[in-house]
Amino acid sequence: MQSIPHIIASELQVQPSQVQATIALLDEGATVPFIARYRKEKTGGLDDTQLRNLAERLTYLTELNDRRQVILASIEQQDKLTPELKAAIEAADTKNRLEDLYLPYKPKRRTKGEIAKEAGLEPLADMLIADPTLDPEHEAQAFLNNDQDINDTKAALDGARYILMERFAEDANLLQKVRDYLSREATVEAKVIAGQEAAGEKFRDYFEHSEPLSQVPSHRALAMLRGRNEGILSIALNADPSAQDNMQHAAGEQLIREHLGIVASGRAADKWLTTVISWTWRIKVALHLENELISKLRENAETEAIKVFARNLGDLLMAAPAGRKATMGLDPGLRTGVKVACVDNTGKLVAHTTIYPHAPQNQWEKSKRALATLAKMHKIELIAVGNGTASRETDKLAGELLSDIPELKAQKIMVSEAGASVYSASELAAKEFPDLDVSIRGAVSIARRLQDPLAELVKIEPKAIGVGQYQHDVSQSQLAQSLDNVVEDCVNGVGVEINMASAPLLARVAGLSKTLANNIVAYRDLNGAFKNRKELLSVPRLGPKAYEQAAGFLRIQGGDNALDSSGVHPETYELVQAMAQSVQLDVASLIGNRDNLRKIDAKAFVSEDFGLPTINDILKELEKPGRDPRGEFKTAEFKEGVNTIADLYPEMILEGVVTNVANFGAFVDIGVHQDGLVHISALSDKFIDDPSKVVKAGDVVKVKVMEVDAPRKRISLTMRLTDKAPSPMDKQASPRDRKPIRTQAKAPSQPSQNGAMGNAFADALAKLKK
After folding, report:
1. E-strand spans in 466-616?
2. Which of 709, 715, 730 shows the shortest CA–CA distance to 654?
3. Burial of 164 (0-12, 13-18, 19+ CB in 10 A)
4. In terms of pTM, does the model score above 0.90?
5. In which band, very low, low, confident or very high, does the pLDDT at 363 lie, cut at 50, 70 and 90?
6. Do 547 and 537 contact (CB within 8 A), yes or no?
7. CA–CA separation, 42 vs 20, rounded Å?
8. Cβ-count burial 228-252 (b if 16+ within 10 Å, e if not)
9. Is 701:686 a contact under the CB 8 Å cutoff?
10. pLDDT digits over 735-744, tens only?
11. pLDDT-derived band of residue 241, with 50, 70 and 90 as boundaries?
12. How far apart are alpha carbons 71 and 104 in whole angstroms?
């Protein structure tokens, strides 16, 4: 049996020594961001994605090995552990295989097969399977036993059948053969439960749906499973799609026959054995593996959905910040008014109010005057408008304000409100603004997330940001762990200014806990700004290990040591000093000095403690110290006069912001309170198999309106701007593109592999209705 490091190394296509070194670091309490950034020599340069995969597989294989030991001990205690069985168990590389091997020895309630064995019928079963030429009725005569309620040959043969059924159903090799076959060949069939047609309208595309199990995409799997959970759909596997009934006997029973080497040829026991095989398939194997494979389908779909959510969250967190600019946040509303919050260039709240520009109050001019006063008083440079109810109307108000007072030289930007209400009602917001109304806190969050999305969004539970697909249908613990990993990688990838960071942001820094983050803030409040990184060691409960893990990701601008503003770790400060001396400069003069940095021979500074990867990383960091890896700040300009779905028409070209990327396409906010969908087939002129290769959450894109279904709030968009919106009468349109422009509700088309727009909308409907 291979060791765990060797198994992982083979899967990740790296060296076992890299895996062993990483496991040792993890066991010592090192974090993934720290290992990826500062321990490249030990891991051979494994990046954070490889390290995350390694850690995940390490957990799985460790659990597998622990379970293996329990199973071996259990079978050995039963005195049934043969060398062959032990070898098979030690070679098992999945939990399914391990449990299959354990199945015959697993303690369980008395079964019909066990009762039949106790009644002495096992020899009859063995005789008939070994020699099918024997006559079952004749042989059963010898096993009649009134004391055991075996009063006739039927009872004897039934008992023998139960024994063989259980034996076959516990054959690990047979189960694996059938499992492999079903995984390749079976279809998933969904049907509406009689009487649930009206209640399950949103699942209409799955009322009579069938597709290969191996090809079901995650979003369709989760949609069908949600329909089943809501009592709308039934789901089953069909092992033989050419047959009429689900889990039809032909293919499944043939697999069992071939495995057992039983060929029906008119022998005396063949008819009886055929019944045994049929019952084994229908009652034991088919139901067991159907449940297992549908569970596996859910597991894989959840994994993919979590992956999509994590990717979208990472893109959103890494969106370019507008920077340190005084910002006005507007949280739109109609009857309750527009909440206004002004923050300075550090994010500190300096003013707030509520205005009522919209119906029923209609205080348009008064509201503009109030905004103008605040904007001038606090030298506002940015106006962040939340994209919720009344957002376009409020955006128009901001536009008029800027037009009326051009000397403001401010810029208005539509900002996603996702999660703002969650933050505003949180314990954290209550602690930060105890005397502030909940709705005003939301406006503060909208303003701050424009200044720095990462710093503000870390205050919100990742799941509440809402950039996932079927996020409430997946394992919440796995989702939370995956999203936490994304947040941790993003925060440490960017770095944190320790003298400005909030406790929630500091808590995401490698090596820091919520307690340590709060202690840092408390120390800062009491003693003033940190002057150098070493001062962190004075923070209560922050010891050498936490300092080692966190220091390189914390920044101090204008402190005692110029290196403290960079990503250079304090453990290499002496090394940097030696580099500076080699070109006859002090450290401060070396930082950012490209010409002199390129004169340094990296190989000359390699030692037992620091290898070439670390030296090269230091030189790159010194060239552009503290560089923000996030991109250039860009905004979308929503088209004036296009405020609702009723304002849209085919062929209209608009600018929008990608809000969510799913496996079937991308959702785009075009400013009409309803995201449009760019199906995967309309994202590019070239074939793509993954929308994330073309767009990511936060991208500003140009799209063309293809279809509008106002009653059902569905908007089909394309990023192929040369495409012509299809007409029902267009005979030249291709079969894929010949779609009507709907203005009234119409049943979507039957799902297809590449998916028409209508089908994509059906797949996405659950998400859109959230």
Report:
1. 496-497, 554-555
2. 715
3. buried
4. no
5. very high
6. yes
7. 9
8. beeebbbbbbbbbeeeeebbbbebb
9. no
10. 333 333 333 3
11. confident
12. 12
How far is C-alpha 394 from the chain's CA centre? 34
User: CB atoms < 10 A from the CB of 319, how many?
Assistant: 23
pLDDT at 641: 85
The string of pLDDT tens digits covering residues 288-304 is: 999 999 999 999 999 99
Beta strands in 124-223 (DSSP E): 187-192, 208-212
Tokens 């790159």 correspond to 620
Q: Where are the alpha helices (DSSP H) in 261-331?
A: 270-279, 286-317
Which strand (E) or helix (H) includes residue 384?
Answer: strand 382-386
What domains lie within the chain, and their CATH numbers? 4-105 (1.10.10.650), 112-305 (1.10.3500.10), 329-451 (3.30.420.140), 645-768 (2.40.50.140)
The residue type found at 29 is G
- What's at 150, amino acid-wise? I
- Length of the chain measured in residues: 770
CB 127 within 8 A of CB 105: no
Largest CA distance in the chain: 107
Main-chain dihedrals φ then ψ at residue 477, nearest 5 degrees? -70, -45
CA gap 347, 323 in Å, rounded: 10
Euclidean distance between CA atoms 770 and 699, whole angstroms: 22
The DSSP code for 364 is H
